[in-house]
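Sequence in, structure out. Go.
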Amino acid sequence: HKRILKFLQLFVSEMPKPAFMKQTLEELGIGTYNNIAFIHPDTPIIKALNIFVDRRVSALPVVDESGKVVDIYSKFDVINLAAEKTYNNLDITVTQALRHRSQYFEGVMKCNRLETLETIVDRIVKAEVHRLVVVDEHASIVGIVSLSDILQALVLTPAGAKRKESETE
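Output:
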């Protein structure tokens, strides 16, 4: 997905921008905003693993008591846990497990619903991440926008929108 999005970003940057790229996430309805799976800093790893399986998600925002997004725990972090052979103690908290994370981790990549699709695509491509956590003005989680959401909007939705327009003519 990341390579496809990077190609589309580079390809689109050489052409006139489609009007929908200047629209906001809110206007386009891109992302997931209901029933968002998340965990807390003191959530045991075993519970996070169960949520990955039960909810079929690949990352869980870590949210503090006030609702603010403070970190993210992804399936990639689980692979690191296994690689370091720390997986024999699944009762450790997410915070403890994330201490083993690479020093290259730059923090949770965030956006808000009023940013344009163009801005979101640029941020995901430059940060080389799979998703952005959508937050409000207090840094509280309101949604997730993933590579899949964006690719569906870039590749499938414009074609579908054109088809609907031509059906009404």
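Check: The mean pLDDT is 82. The first helix runs from residue 2 to 13.
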